[in-house]
Amino acid sequence: MIRSALRRMTLGRWPSVRSGDALSCPEVGRLLQRFLDDELSDDAEIEALSEHLDECRRCGLEADTYQKIKDALASRREPVPQDSVDRLREFGQHLAEGS
Amino acid sequence: MSVDGDAAFERYVLPEVEVMLRVARSLTRNGADAEDLVQDSLIRAYKAIERFDGRHPRAWLLTILRNTHINRNRRRRPELLRDPDTQLERLVQSPEDDEAIRPDRFVDLEFDADVVAAFDSLGEPFRDVIELVDIDGLAYAEAAEVLGIPVGTVMSRLHRGRKKIREQLRRTGAAPTYDDLETGRQR
After folding, report:
1. ipTM higher than the 0.85 cut
2. Of A3, B78, B124, B176, which sits most exposed with the smallest number of CB within 10 A?
């Protein structure tokens, strides 16, 4: 209780999340982008955030929307032409072998 | 160049050529220029390899790529701005596979087109970060190296940029609002 009050006061920056902790919506908002980008490495944070997203419709909707935006942008990713990659690797290989 | 330097170049640099080319294509918006940029960056990396400590080769190479790009641009006229219409056209071009003619794919394509339109309307600082992370698939630290800005700035620009996209989608009805939660509407 005290820990979650402290985290609310510090906008989720302290103390760190422990296994079994519940997160508030603003804390989830702070972590969500890093979570979607696979930049969260703390297991307790990931667990607490996933639980919150399962239970809170508002945050779940937020996460779904951002994930769809990410997916739509990722679909613009064009394959890098393999012949360009091959040419550049060959060029690099020549640099390494030619000296 | 010493044998160690050549070996380090092969070990650390050559596996990253594809990522370098992907990022170079985002920076130059032109396939031929991107290839030239990577080639120049490889030469610089080769000259500097003996001073490289072997830690975070991708970040090191992306820094070289960025600096090479800046130097090349000093000598050239600015790139033409991207034409949003062309971007959209490319996205909604009729794909040829059967998968693409499923009705739910049309809904996806419509949503995707809305996202791209919102993305193209963003200011450059937001667009650059989103492009590197969401389209090119770089990690925050790698995008920070390419742009020469702190990781915290990458995170805040990403967050703000995506929020702007979401707000625009809500305005056009492409993304649900909190009111939709009350009525149970889902797109």
Report:
1. no
2. B78
